[in-house]
Amino acid sequence: MIVATAVCPQPPLLLRELTGGRDVAADLRKACEEAVGVLLEAAPDVIVVLGADIRSADRVEGRIALSAFGGPGERVPGDEALPTSLAVARRLLDDLDARVPVEMGTIAADADPAEVALRGRALAERPERVGLLVMADAGARRGPRAPGHLDERTFAVDDTIRAALAGADRASLLALDPDLCAELLIGGRAALQVMARALDDSVVTAPRLLYADDPFGVLYLVASWPGQDA
Asked: Is residue 230 part of a domain?
């Protein structure tokens, strides 16, 4: 069963080595560490990380490839490098000295409802105490310098996601339109919907939105959903 859930975004700047002399992601990183810390406090038997990516995979292993983002360190072959979402998650867990088994997997940003439901059920049916860490960005079209430039439609959809995470509103997450989210570059849509499906039969107490800002034209949201009971 899932005993606690945390949602964090996946910008590479959460890897401190990439920020240069001025740590532009300090506040975001602090919020992510708080959310993951609450996850660990739930005493899970395993941490399951679900990251948004271009393809789906039940189990992913690899190394953090700082050089892929222009950072220091040795070059890591592509087949040994973790996807960005999982690399950021791995670093957050390492920085908090997580001494719990960790399993990492991905869900494709364009995953359809059937795949979302299947992955969600698989998580919900696990017998051990699971701490679920979901790595997902919201809209990337929030300004002229955003990765996808400006699309005014993104603000309403992002506000829906923000409110859903603040209030543990799984129905609103499941109602997100895959095609519209793809147009708005909301890469975390499928990951958030898997989380919502996995928690269909759970009671989420005291959900908290720990961070909501778009410093680089992408909305980053950090949420903690502790105290889940079936």
From this structure: no
Q: Which helix (H) or strand (E) holds 30?
A: helix 26-41
Asked if residues 81 and 65 have their Cβ atoms less than 8 Å apart, the reply is yes
What confidence tier does 124 reach under pLDDT thresholds 50, 70, 90?
very high
- The answer to whether position 164 is within a domain reads yes
Q: Which pLDDT belongs to residue 70?
A: 53
Pairing state between β 130-135 and 220-225: unpaired
* Identity of residue 199: L
> Is 73 part of a structural domain of the chain?
yes
The one-letter amino acid at 118:
L
pLDDT for res 217: 92
Q: Do 13 and 19 touch, CB atoms closer than 8 A?
A: yes
- Whether 69 contacts 18, CB under 8 Å: yes
Is the pTM higher than 0.90?
yes
Residue corresponding to tokens 């499906």: 197
DSSP secondary structure code for residue 140 in this structure:
S
Q: Measured in whole angstroms, how far is the alpha carbon of residue 175 from the centre of its chain? A: 18
Tokens of 218: 């992408």
- Counted domains in the chain: 1
Q: What is the dihedral of CA 130, 133, 139, 143, to 10 degrees?
A: 160
